[in-house]
């Protein structure tokens, strides 16, 4: 249940809490990308600290935030000949969810999080 909740938190921060202007400007502006990632970190911290405690929640949120910043630094795929506009968004979300799962697994494997 924790993992699903953390992914839902990500989706909330990436869609309703991210204005269209921020979604387009975050690729060119580290400042805008930083604000976007800060929203993720704060929201994720609020939830993960309930699950894992403040210290582990802070470390978990910060780690995911760094990865989020790196993932959002560029478009990983472009719209190709098929014209599907959702392809870059879908790849972005796959990378974000994979990073959350990887960090969660890492924290479980080192004993920081109990499942």
Could you list some keywords that capture this structure?
single chain, 115 residues, mainly alpha, 5 helices, 0% strand, globular
> What fraction of residues sit in β-strands?
under 5%
Mean pLDDT metric: 93
Q: Which stretches are low in confidence, meaning pLDDT under 50 for 5 or more residues running?
A: none
**Biggest sheet: strands, sense, closure?**
none
What's the gyration radius in Å? 15 Å
Work out the count of structural domains: 1
Q: Tell me the total number of β-strands.
A: 0
Structural class by helix and strand composition: mainly alpha
Shape: globular
Counting H and I runs of at least 4 residues, what is the number of helices? 5
The first-to-last residue Cα distance is 10 Å
Order of helices and strands: HHHHH
Helix content: over 70%
Task: Please outline what is shown here.
With 115 residues, the protein is mainly α. The protein has one domain. The protein has 5 helices and no strands.
Task: Give a topology summary.
Blueprint lengths: L1 H13 L5 H6 L4 H23 L1 H18 L15 H23 L6
Helix pairs in contact: 1-3, 1-5, 3-4, 4-5
If you had to describe this structure to a student in words, what would you say it looks like?
With 115 residues, this protein is an all-alpha fold. It has one domain (2-109). The protein is 72% helix and 0% strand. It has helices at residues 2-14, 20-25, 30-52, 54-71, 87-109. It is globular and about 45 Å long. The chain starts with a helix and ends in a 6-residue tail after the last helix. The model has no long low-confidence stretch (mean pLDDT 93).
């Amino acid at each position: 249940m924790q993992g699903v909740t953390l992914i839902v938190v990500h989706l909330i921060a990436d869609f309703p809490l991210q204005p269209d202007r921020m979604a387009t400007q975050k690729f060119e502006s580290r400042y805008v990308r930083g604000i976007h990632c800060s929203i993720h970190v704060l929201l994720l911290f609020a939830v993960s600290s309930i699950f894992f405690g403040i210290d582990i929640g802070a470390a978990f949120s910060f780690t995911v935030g760094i990865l989020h910043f790196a993932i959002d630094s560029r478009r990983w795929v472009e719209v190709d000949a098929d014209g599907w506009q959702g392809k870059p968004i879908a790849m972005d979300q796959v990378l974000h969810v994979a990073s959350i799962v990887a960090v969660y697994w890492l924290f479980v494997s080192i004993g920081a999080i109990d499942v």
